[in-house]
Amino acid sequence: MIKTLQKKFVVSSMIAISVLIMILLGAINIANIFLVENETKRTMDMLYENEGGAGVAPNMSEKAPPDRPFDFGYRDKFMSASFFIVRFDSKNEIVYTDTSRMPSVSESDTKEFAQTIKSQGDVQGSINGIRYMVRQSPVHAGTTMIFLDTTVEKIMCLQVLLLSLGIGIAGWLLMLALVILLSKRAIKPIAENIEKQKQFVTNAGHEIKTPLAIILSNTEAMELYMGENKWSKNIREQTKRLAGLTQNLLTLAKMDETNSANMSEFSLSDLMRDSINSFNELISSKNISLSMDIQPNVSLKGDREQIRQLISILTDNAVKYTDENGEIYVKLSSKDKKIKFQIKNTCSTVPAVPPDKLFDRFYRADESRTQKSGGYGIGLSVAQSIVTANKGKIYASYEKDNIISFSVEF
């Protein structure tokens, strides 16, 4: 129980931390991409403004344009940019190309790019990884195409992405180590409270067993001398009931404490058939129709005695809550190394709560909490603990308005 609680604490904490790290990394990279994109646009605008002297850097004395008073790297950007320019006349004929700032692109490729873009009618975009912009020439009749190589910017974005991922992973691992170290301290008060509750149940259970045995033996002795009467009968029945409840509480406390099983391989088909057949007399007394579909030779690796108790709990639960002349259906099957058995029973009406509520300790379908059925309200909790200890899963579901189904998978 404590390890499960600690595991849930670590998982919940790391999910929250992971979401936070993902949001931070996403925000950082989106902001970086936005800044690089904005800087690329500004560079292309600068190249367009100097298109009249394409390939020639601004004069040393030239200052940044008035609309960019803080662009102190204006000349540096122009000098470091890798670009080429294509100019069209008013008849859409290429009259000028300049590839001096990007010699890796031949003049024929330059013209091919320009013609392709011209035929598409785009004013901006990317071709072969090169950004382009088409605008009316500021000093000549016709249009000008500015092509800018953004390889460096892409590499920078990738570097920021990889660096942020590396820092994020390192931070995540560091937080995982811290959460694991601090988890024991964080759940210590809860763990101590749970341990005290378990110890109380165990101690109280053992203390109650002795007086119950004395009461039962004295009642039986009294009946030998005075004969059985309705009062002695009630005392004996309620004493046995309380003894059974105490035993179930001790079993549940033990399951919560150890949460382990003595694993061995056995025939689940034979065990189910034998366990359910032991209820034949009780089933017949209520005129219940029992249908069994048990696949032969189904083997399970688990705790045989715990699984026997599990089958008995589910069968006993089905018999108790099945009306006179009702039906119980039992099925066992194995497919793709997965074992599933199901116990369904009819009832007057299904409980008006979610099926998972049935596994709550001391929950009863009848809110009046009468003892008509003879149950204790913790049988299904014990069944759930047994399934968990044997590394399985148990589900409850409602079929129609009068059928309750319990399914166990291993």
Q: Care to describe what's here?
A:
By secondary structure, this protein is α+β, with helices and mostly antiparallel strands. The protein has a domain at 262-409: 2-Layer Sandwich (Heat Shock Protein 90), CATH 3.30.565. Helix content is 53%, strand content 18%. It contains nine helices and twelve strands. The chain has helices spanning 2-49, 74-80, 107-120, 151-226, 230-258, 268-277, 280-285, 304-321, 379-389; strands at residues 83-88, 94-98, 124-127, 130-136, 143-149, 264-267, 289-294, 299-302, 327-335, 338-346, 393-399, 403-409. It has a five-stranded antiparallel sheet with strand order 2-1-5-4-3, sandwiched between helices. α1 (2-49) runs antiparallel to α4 (151-226) and α4 runs antiparallel to α5. The radius of gyration is 40 Å and the shape is elongated. The model is unreliable at 52-70 and 367-371 (pLDDT under 50).
